[in-house]
Design brief:
alpha/beta; four-stranded mixed β-sheet; Glyas_Bleomycin-R_OHBP_Dase; Glyoxalase_6; VOC family protein
Length: about 140
């Protein structure tokens, strides 16, 4: 059996503020917090259910936001891609901008089908095509 991806970790200056952004962006909740560290993820599973789910197949990872002193200085080597599920790509971009995201320039040509944004601390992520009914079908 292989390993499972269970958490993503993101260094930041203000874990509480960044947790608020990502919880609003993903419709997640704060799962745990301690000084300088906040874990966020999907709501609704207790630890036993989550352990069984991870053992039986892939599950959505949680995200740990950890306080660090140093600033982000270069483009992320890894980033998150988001796919809207209940609105168009343009509507989702506008929603995320209203939550505090900004447009990010990482060398796009202008021909991309995705939009590159950055969270309030400058971590890049992409908004992909919409998976909403009427926008995407198999």
């Amino acid at each position: 059996m292989a390993s499972r991806m269970t958490e993503l970790s993101l260094d930041c200056h203000d874990p509480e503020a960044l947790a608020a952004f990502w919880c609003a962006a993903l419709d997640w909740v704060v799962l745990d917090r301690e000084p300088g560290l906040v874990e966020i993820g999907p709501a609704g599973r207790d630890d036993g259910e989550l352990l069984e789910a991870v053992r039986s197949g892939p599950v959505a990872p949680t995200m740990f936001l950890a306080a660090v002193e140093e600033d982000k200085v270069v483009k992320n080597r890894m980033h998150v891609d988001l796919s809207p599920i209940d609105r168009s790509q343009d509507e989702e971009v506008e929603r995320l901008l209203a939550l505090g995201a900004t447009h990010a320039e990482v060398g796009q040509t202008g021909e991309e089908s995705w939009t590159v944004l950055a969270d309030p601390e400058g971590n890049e992520f992409c908004v992909l095509r919409s998976l909403a009914p009427g926008h995407f079908s198999l």
